[in-house]
Amino acid sequence: MNAWQEDLLQVAQGSACEQALFDRVCHAARNLGFEYCAYGLRIPKPFSNPQVQLLSNYPRRWRERYQEQGYLATDPSVQRCRQSIDPVVWDEALFANTPQLWAEAQSFGLRHGWAQSSLDALGVGGMLTLARSCETLTSAWLASEEMKMRWLVCVAHVSLSRLCKRRVLMNGRVELSAREVEVLQWTADGKTSGEIGDILALSENTVNFHIKNAVAKLRACNKTSAVVQAALLGLLSQ
Question: What is the value of pTM for the model shown?
Answer without folding.
Answer: 0.76
